[in-house]
Amino acid sequence: MTTPVNRLRPRRSCLAVPGSNPRFLEKAQGLPADQVFLDLEDACAPLAKPDARHTIVKFLNEGDWTGKTRVVRVNDWTTEWTYRDVVTVVEGAGPNLDCIMLPKVQNAEQVVALDLLLTQIEKTMGFEVGRIGIEAQIENAQGLNNVNAIAQASPRIETIIFGPADFMASINMKSLVVGEQPPGYPADAYHYILMKILMAARANDLQAIDGPYLQIRNVDGFREVAGRAAALGFDGKWVLHPGQVDAANEVFSPSQEDYDHAELILDAYDYYTSEAGGKKGSAMLGDEMIDEASRKMALVISGKGRAAGMRRTSSFEIPEA
Ligand code: GLV
Ligand code: MG
User: Fold this and answer.
1) Whole-model pTM?
2) What are the domain boundaries of the chain?
3) Residue 189 Cβ contacting ligand 1 at under 6 Å
4) DSSP element (H, E) containing 161
5) Any idea which positions bind substrate (predicted)?
6) In whole angstroms, what is the distance from residue 264 CA to residue 146 CA?
7) Tens of pLDDT, residues 246-297
8) CA 165 to ligand 2 centroid distance, Å
9) 211 CA distance to ligand 1 centroid (A)?
10) Is 205 annotated as a binding residue?
11) Residue pair 36/59 in contact by the 8 Å Cβ criterion
């Protein structure tokens, strides 16, 4: 099985689009989100699901999703809908689909089941086996406890996603405001959850994605919550409204200053470790000492900046002797 090609694509903004709503499916194509996911789960009423599967197939095949990672969120394995969601969508639009998002994942076996079903459909339909990736949503205590095994359950896994709304319900958190701190707790109530997801993602070379912020008119609030996840190292966040897209793209891209600095470190370290630069393992860049660890940190920032299409505004100059 091949490694999914989309694993490293930017996913700063992951736009949720109800699969039963042609107007939203039309509009989503024109928004600058890195990823869209067409939803058959909680944004799609049970009675609307059978038709929505076909609507999604049509929009995947006929829409213009250029530049976006195309994902469909199916229903979770505890429902009666999952297999039909996967069979209808993948048989109907497999070549125009990048990933299936599996919500409320509780254990590695649920990922393996989806992997096996995808493989059967790919073989039957003559599609490339293993190309379609899996995004696993962690939305309850069982899922969080098993997150590392989930991250390792299939080479198709590309992202681990935090689903705060379902998660808050699952652990009886005393708040109805998704993503905001519950009143009465003086620290960050999400820190442990986000860090645990991030560790599983990083240990297995996957992307970590934060879930939705439901107060769609409060862009400052969105920025603050997104900024917390970005500061920890998350790669992106869900967006539910056009007004959140630019904010997510900005928050999950490096600042121009950091991007320039990262590129400078890479060039400087390249030079100082070379024959001409004196084969040094550590060196000074202005007032800053840089070494191999600085290079690794710079690679992260520069990788995000390059993926976001940023251009540098300064260049490294070899210091005069
Ligand atoms: C998303 O699915 C959530 O539950 O927050
Ligand atoms: Mg959910």
Assistant:
1) 0.93
2) 13-251, 256-307
3) no
4) strand 157-162
5) 73, 139
6) 40
7) 999 999 999 999 999 999 999 999 999 999 999 999 999 999 999 999 999 9
8) 6
9) 6
10) no
11) no
